[in-house]
């Protein structure tokens, strides 16, 4: 899966273990799905999963990793990827924007992205099949990019991986069906009920659309106007979320929690977020019995190298390299407490199609 700030790669087994330990859970909503690591892990364990994210690149990842059924699509995916891999490079918008006007990729790989993406658009495929091909292309580009995992800028010198040739691979799809949506989180929870909702919202000023604007443009293929050294989409200037605002995140999270129809909630939040632990506890205790698991965590790569201006001048220093990720578990049924040690129960059997 793609490099991603806020990824739960190192926590996913702990999160899945917590879900396994909660009795009666069959259906799960991953409300801010991002790369879909959590939804993918829960689908693998047999849960009926719905993954949601309002950014199209993330919703496309969810359609591939949660909604798509590998058994139905694999043969056609393999055939189409062989066809796409054979296309010669043809420089276009992607090369001009992200290889020449900026420097995220070598032009040889940008030209291949252009050719492959144009062909995918021309095929007019069904949504799930198209999503799998787009994820394959996104991940192939990610393996040859020249960033630290954020697309607010690119490295001053070329990353060694940028010299490699673009290679399409079959994404790690799973057998069986799930579902995915591209909705505002509040709209999503108002449209259904689940046994458990996993909530991993943005928690500081960093906006995911700005951080991953290249993937958004690649998936939309709308060839937007861009601005700045990083060649961000112009709509990055307009995008606004209450979860990125220190003044508004508290009320936004309260409204969201109040709207959720589920027996259990698992909320993931950093101790470096706009809301401190006491504030998050207060909000969640209003919904039911609460327990909290604190996990020592290595901060994202940008925190390890300091802060640099677009011209490469160091403008900030490293303050600390570790933080705490907090997993809040709520039983909304009125139980006295929630155990954070998963019970020794078998993994749920796959849900029939």
Fold and architecture overview:
- The strands form three sheets. The protein has a seven-stranded mixed β-sheet, sandwiched between helices. It has a two-stranded antiparallel sheet with strand order 5-6.
- Helix content is 37%, strand content 16%.
- Mean pLDDT is 88; it is low at 342-353.
- By secondary structure, the chain is of the alpha/beta class.
- It contains 13 helices and eleven strands.
- The longest helix has 17 residues, at 107-123.
- The protein has two domains: 1-66 and 178-202 and 242-345, Vaccinia Virus protein VP39 (Rossmann fold); 70-164 and 212-240, no CATH class.
Task: Name some characteristics of this structure.
two-stranded antiparallel ribbon; 2 domains; globular; disordered C terminus; Rossmann fold; 353 residues
> Using only CA atoms, what is the Rg?
21 Å
The largest pleated sheet is described as: 7 strands, mixed
Q: What's the arrangement of strands in the largest beta sheet?
A: 3-2-1-4-7-11-8
The CATH architecture of the largest domain comes to: 3-Layer(aba) Sandwich
Binned strand content: 15-25%
Count helical runs. 13
| Count of folded domains | 2
Terminal CA distance reads 26 Å
Q: Care to count the β-strands?
A: 11
């Amino acid at each position: 899966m793609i490099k991603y700030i806020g990824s739960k790669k190192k926590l996913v087994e702990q999160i899945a273990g917590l879900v396994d330990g909660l009795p009666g859970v069959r259906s799960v909503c991953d409300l801010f799905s991002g790369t879909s690591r959590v939804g993918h892990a829960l689908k693998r364990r047999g849960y009926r999963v719905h993954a949601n994210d309002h950014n199209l690149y993330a919703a496309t990842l969810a359609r591939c990793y949660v909604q798509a059924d590998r058994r139905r699509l694999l043969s056609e995916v393999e055939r189409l990827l062989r066809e796409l891999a054979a296309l010669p490079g043809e420089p276009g918008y992607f090369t001009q924007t992200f290889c020449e006007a900026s420097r995220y990729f070598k032009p040889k790989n940008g030209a291949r992205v252009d050719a492959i993406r144009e062909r995918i658009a021309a095929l007019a495929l069904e949504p799930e099949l198209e999503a799998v091909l787009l994820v394959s292309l996104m991940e192939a580009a990610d393996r040859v990019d020249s960033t630290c995992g954020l697309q607010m800028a690119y490295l001053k010198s070329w990353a060694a991986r940028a010299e490699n040739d673009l290679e399409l691979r079959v994404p790690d799809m799973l057998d069986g069906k799930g579902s995915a949506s591209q909705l505002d989180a509040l709209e999503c929870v108002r449209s259904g009920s689940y046994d458990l909702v996993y909530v991993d919202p943005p928690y500081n000023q960093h906006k995911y659309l700005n951080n991953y604007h290249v993937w958004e443009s690649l998936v939309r293929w709308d060839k937007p106007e861009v601005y700045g050294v990083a060649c961000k989409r112009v709509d990055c200037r307009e995008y606004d979320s209450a979860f990125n605002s220190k003044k508004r995140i508290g009320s936004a999270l309260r409204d969201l929690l109040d709207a959720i129809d589920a027996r259990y909630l698992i909320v993931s939040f950093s101790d470096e977020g706009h809301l401190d632990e006491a504030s998050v506890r207060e909000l969640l205790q209003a919904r039911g019995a609460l327990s909290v698991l604190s996990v020592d965590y290595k901060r994202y790569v940008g925190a390890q190298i300091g802060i640099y201006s677009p011209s490469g001048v160091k403008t900030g220093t490293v303050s600390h390299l570790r933080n705490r990720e907090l997993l809040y578990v709520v039983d909304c049924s009125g139980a006295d407490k929630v155990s954070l040690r998963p019970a020794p129960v078998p993994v749920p059997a796959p849900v029939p199609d």
